[in-house]
Amino acid sequence: MRKVLIAGNWKMHKTNEEAEALAKEILRGLAETKGVEVALCPPFTALERVKKVIEGSEIALGAQNVFWEEEGAFTGEISPKMLIAIGCKYVIIGHSERRKYFKESDEQVNRKLSKAIKMGLIPILCVGETLEERKANKTWSVVERQLTSALNGFQGEGEIVVAYEPVWAIGTGIPATGEDALEVILKIRERLSELLNESFASSTRILYGGSVTPDNIMEFLKFKEIDGALVGGASVKSESFIGIVKKAALRGET
Ligand code: PGA
């Protein structure tokens, strides 16, 4: 059984104070909600504050990025060891904004993912095509390349989560259709089965991400093959994030 996961990617939003307040609102708003795993991924600076708020609850903590070395002279970087020490369970790896603005390559994504797994974090690996690539019918070749290269050398020695996030749907208010997301997600699962094995593929959660709101979350979750969502914009407002999680919990009950 794959438990639905709703992860909030707060991106570069929220000071410590604001992050603490948001986490408290989310914790309060979801006190009675069961059957969905929730993860909050604030900026590095707010990880500890948010951790203190959610400690003892079912809500998990995640980071938005990580470096592949444990420690050393790497100014500005954060290691998996540091994230573990703060209490992170998840780490987002290969988000399209990092690929675009910070020129993260498939190879770097692979190094980050391998190290994160080795250190005991669960990567949320982001893959997805740009609008140009989609128009050129390259959606699957791009996603397949990103997935295969990210998992190079990985032999199933830890859990991973994959998030299919079409770049053109991120932050645009134009989500993919449930059917479009499903098509790629089915292929991702098939590819996981080829790269690893059937049981790894069938137990791995594959999320959709890109302009998810309380109004459209069920467009995706109506398909049992879509295991949750990575939420950006709607995750930094308690009302919309709580709304998404509560709707997702209804699927769990049906
Ligand atoms: P969005 O972002 O929900 O604002 O489109 C999703 C993401 O970047 O993970």
Features:
8 strands, 254 residues, globular, single chain, binds 2-phosphoglycolic acid, TIM Barrel, alpha/beta, 11 helices
Condensed summary:
By secondary structure, the chain is an alpha/beta fold. The protein has eleven helices and eight strands. β3, α3 (80-86) and β4 (90-93) form a beta-alpha-beta unit.
Order of helices and strands: EHEHEHEHHEHHEHHEHEH
CATH architecture group name: Alpha-Beta Barrel
Tell me the structural class. alpha/beta
Total separate domains: 1
Bound molecules: 2-phosphoglycolic acid
Quick one: biggest sheet? 8 strands, parallel, barrel
Separate helix tally: 11
| Overall CATH class | Alpha Beta
Could you tell me how far the N terminus lies from the C terminus, measured between alpha carbons in angstroms?
14 Å
Radius of gyration, CA atoms, in whole angstroms: 17 Å
Count of β-strands: 8
Q: What integer is the average pLDDT?
A: 97
Description:
- This protein has helices spanning 16-29, 47-54, 80-86, 96-101, 106-118, 131-135, 139-150, 178-195, 198-203, 217-221, 238-253; strands at residues 4-9, 36-41, 60-63, 90-93, 122-127, 161-164, 205-209, 228-231.
- The chain is α/β, with parallel strands linked by helices.
- The protein has one domain (5-253): TIM Barrel, CATH 3.20.20.70.
- The two termini are 14 Å apart.
- The structure holds 2-phosphoglycolic acid.
- 2-phosphoglycolic acid (PGA) is lined by residues 9, 165, 170-171, 209-212, 230-234.
